[in-house]
Specification:
Elements lengths: L1 E5 L9 H9 L3 E6 L20 E2 L11 E4 L13 H9 L3 E4 L9 H10 L3 E3 L20 E7 L6 H14 L4 E4 L3 H7 L13 H12 L5 E4 L11 H11 L3 E7 L4 E2 L2 E5 L3 H12 L6 E8 L6 H15 L3 E2 L10 H4 L1
Parallel strand pairs: 1-2, 1-4, 2-3, 4-5, 5-6, 7-9, 7-10, 8-9, 10-13, 13-14
Antiparallel strand pairs: 11-12
Helix pairs in contact: 1-5, 2-3, 6-7
Length: 338
């Protein structure tokens, strides 16, 4: 499928959905929409992903696309009205629109009417299934080993780490599967439940539903975590995934140099050792799990040598082997995880 990614004024640092799709999805990305960077190319700002032109809007595309994908995941999941002209243009051109927002495009009167007129689909990735229910506490009964990524904050690379570990395990010949719990992961895998949109009573049950669906088909399940257990807004989602997945092992993700909660800068991050203890202690009453590895996002560090040093320091702090899976690959810590 040929897609354009909407990332206005956010690419690449604050457009994690766009970056995740570029890095891991099977879509043919023909352009990125960013008014501030129009005229540049993707690889001018982001290495290691397929290149594409950056344009100001849908009207500047050289060729038609099959879909416009909103590549921004703002705090609160709202829709910025400055995106409306591009969404409208996409629908009128016959392109589907894919969005991972809490604002559902299919419930927007203008977009719904235009979509019906032009015969296109509006895929609201965060719209949960209607038949979800409470957990039964059976995720621990599946045959697969369940590995859950947890973090010190949001946007620390939990999805990236999960996909990288799945790919590394598969390349090694292991039977592994990725279990997506957020909008970007669902776009990449084309299945999953958007856990942060599920009724709170059903959060653990939604995760369990996915574990049970895949758990006897594979030897390893790598579950995408969300939020952080100390996050002032999203801790409930984190705990629901932790208890619903009943993981056997945990992988702790962190951004090198980060000291405060992103978007909530009045809240300092705890010591790394505190996160290890918190996750293991909170998991134990439902299903014991140990932090067996760490993933450190070193993208803010320029040199590989300095990044290696940061990874080593992080490994010492959490008492487990660590790597930056994008920079150095996940193979380095795969033995500890498997």
């Amino acid at each position: 499928m040929r897609v354009a990614l909407l990332a206005h004024e956010k690419f690449p640092d604050d457009a994690k959905t766009a970056v995740g799709v570029l890095r891991y999805a099977d879509y043919d990305v023909t352009a990125v929409l960013d008014r501030d960077l129009a005229g540049d190319r993707v690889n001018d700002h982001l290495e290691g992903v397929p290149d594409a032109p950056i344009v100001a809007g849908m009207d500047d595309l050289d060729e038609p696309v099959d879909a416009l994908l909103i590549g921004i995941a703002p705090i609160g999941g709202g829709f910025d009205d400055s995106w409306r002209p591009d969404v409208r243009a996409a629908i009128e051109s016959g392109a589907d629109v894919i969005a991972g927002l809490h604002y559902f495009l299919s419930e927007d009167d203008e977009f719904a009417s235009l979509a019906a007129e032009n015969g296109v689909d509006l895929w609201d990735v965060r719209k949960p299934d209607a038949d979800l229910t409470v957990a039964q506490g059976v995720s621990g009964d599946v045959a697969a080993d369940v590995v859950l990524t947890v973090g010190t904050d949001c946007s620390t690379g939990k999805m990236t780490a999960s996909v990288e570990m799945t790919d590394a395990a598969t390349d090694r010949g292991e039977d592994a599967a990725f279990v997506p719990t957020g909008q970007t992961g669902i776009m990449i895998a084309n299945w999953g439940h958007p856990i942060d949109r599920v009724i709170s009573d059903f959060t653990a049950g939604a995760v369990e539903d996915m574990i049970v669906e895949k758990g006897d088909e594979h030897d390893y399940l790598f579950v995408e975590g969300q939020g952080a257990i100390t996050h002032p807004a999203y801790s409930a989602v984190t705990l629901g995934i932790l208890h619903g997945s009943m993981p056997d092992k945990l992988v702790l993700t962190h951004n090198a140099g980060q000291e405060v909660v992103h978007g909530y800068e009045d809240f300092e991050l705890a010591d790394l050792e505190t996160y290890v203890d918190l996750y293991e202690d909170l998991a134990a009453p439902v299903h014991e799990a140990e932090v067996v590895a760490g993933m450190l996002n070193t993208s803010a560090i320029e040199s590989d040598e300095a990044a290696r040093e940061a990874v080593e320091t992080y490994s010492d702090a959490i008492g487990a082997p660590a790597t930056d899976p994008v920079r150095f690959g996940a193979e380095e810590i795969l033995d500890a995880v498997l």
